[in-house]
């Protein structure tokens, strides 16, 4: 079932309280079907879109990634550009994006488009021959995608899930709740390097934050990380 999404304007902020005026009326009947009629305190997700216009770095990354797919598939960059922008329109329910100079498309719009391309490359195991050094490694969605597809966030090779929160020596990892631990997807080479030099030096060398991310139970199970997750879904 597709999430209900509404746009609005934030009116007031106070600590963890946020007041929002929606630009459309909520479809209460549809919302009730999501929560079996119990809509007193439904869970919501708040996203603040980046209003800045598409950047040169995003444009360079996008076309570098299309170059990777051209090398792999033989399809022209022009065809790939049209195809991925069409996928963007489908996934955003009708929005159109442009990366040209003077575009009204925003940083958030371009990020969505690049996510679609990167997900395609991970799904079809397209080699990152060019453009990998341009990937926004400080973005949570990129680290999540690398974890989901077991790809090293530094070089793109097959990765293990490295725990930044040290698990005690001799402790049975299958009895650990991995949802509470921060991880990075790293290949054997880069896993050994971070173990040898430490998180801070490693992060400075590769220009990547070593805070890592936390994964949900479903993702952990899909990628084969066994643990003690209790009754979590």
Summed up:
The protein has a two-stranded antiparallel ribbon with strand order 1-2. The chain has a two-stranded antiparallel sheet with strand order 3-4. It is 39% helix and 9% strand. By secondary structure, it is mainly alpha-helical.
Topology:
Blueprint: E1 8-14, E2 17-22, H1 28-34, H2 56-73, H3 77-91, H4 107-123, H5 140-148, E3 160-163, E4 183-186, H6 188-197, H7 199-206, H8 217-222
Helix pairs in contact: 2-4, 3-4, 4-5, 6-7
The number of distinct β-strands equals 4
| Number of helical elements | 8
Task: Measure the end-to-end span.
Answer: 17 Å
User: What's the alpha carbon Rg, rounded to whole Å?
Assistant: 20 Å
Mean pLDDT: 83
Structural class, by secondary structure, is mainly alpha
Strand content range: 5-15%
Shape: globular
Helix content: 25-40%
Element order: H for helix, E for strand: EEHHHHHEEHHH
Placed side by side, the strands forming the largest sheet appear as 1-2
Pfam families: HNHc_6
InterPro entries: HNHc_6 (IPR041242)
Protein name: Phage protein
